[in-house]
Amino acid sequence: MKRIKAQLMLFFSLILTACLLLSACSSDTSEKQKRDKVRVAEVTRSIFYAPQYVAIEKGFFKDEGIDVDLKTTWGGDKTMTTLLSNGADIALVGSETSIYVGAQGTSDPVINFAQLTQTDGTFLVARKKPDYFSWNQLKGSTFLGQRKGGMPQMAGEFSLKKHGIDPHKDMKLIQNIDYANIPNAFASGTGDYVQLFEPQASLFEQKGIGHVVASFGEASGKLPYTSYMSKQSYMKKNGDVLKRFTKAIYKAQLYVETHTAKETAELIAPYFEDTPVDLIEKVVDRYKGQHSYAVNPILEQDSWNNLQSVMKAAGELPKKADYKKLVNTTFSRDATK
């Protein structure tokens, strides 16, 4: 009798264990079914986009039921092509690209719905360290700029003009070098000044190749420099996904704003394996110091208007772009409530 009782207890124990396992599996499957996969194409891999990587590493997207499939598409044209051809659901790229697409009269415009950075992210690097710096020192110099028509070059020219310098008359302007080769060209001896993103600018300072003398971000003012955007058709069908996506970004923006540069650097270090953590920290601190990271995802109309002023000054604004047609702040304003 005792033996039969023991066998029955073992049998029921096995049944209970099996039920618990099935329940766990069912729960896991349910959790996976609840998550929405969102394909994000970023224009480049940059410390400038620190909040995005924070949102992934801190699990802010997962908290909102989203699995992010992030890929780097290297360049505004490629990123926009990826979005328009349905190779991505969301693009992280300069807002000027949405204006270019809108000017072509598409029936499915690209809409900006969340801002990540709010200034230009480049710096003016001089080959020789001056005792003091004045923008007038650039007159008569050779300036190694960024690609024509891109936001870095437009913001750079806008800044120069604000300081009384005509980049096409007062200096020798070089802008026919591929983006990836600009640092190497300067390091090899081309140019007296160069416009560089981080961490290259700080790295050149460490190596004594050049010296940061000014910030184009500070000089050009607030801009929707890098924003999240999607096609209007995707937005209409997936409004709830974009709402939750934007909430995750806002959480990350608050994290970067309220935590030390060191904490942020250590968190995003896996995305920059070839860059020392102390250099990442320096870059984050520099961007925080000039308020390049947006503290919320709302793309305000004043910034949008400034963007068009920058594009117009560079001769790159195809036509005036309606803020209400190319910007949707519904998700960003909801996220900040």
UniProtKB/TrEMBL annotation:
Where located?
Periplasm
GO cellular component assignments: periplasmic space
Gene3D superfamilies attached to this UniProt entry: Periplasmic binding protein-like II
Record's signal peptide: 1-18
Could you tell me which Pfam families the record lists for this protein? NMT1_2
Q: Which domain of life is it from?
A: Bacteria
Q: Which residues form a coiled coil?
A: none
Q: Which UniProt keywords apply?
A: Signal
Q: Where are the transmembrane segments?
A: none
Q: What family is it from?
A: Belongs to the bacterial solute-binding protein SsuA/TauA family.
Write down what this protein is called.
SsuA/THI5-like domain-containing protein
User: Origin organism of this chain?
Assistant: Fictibacillus enclensis
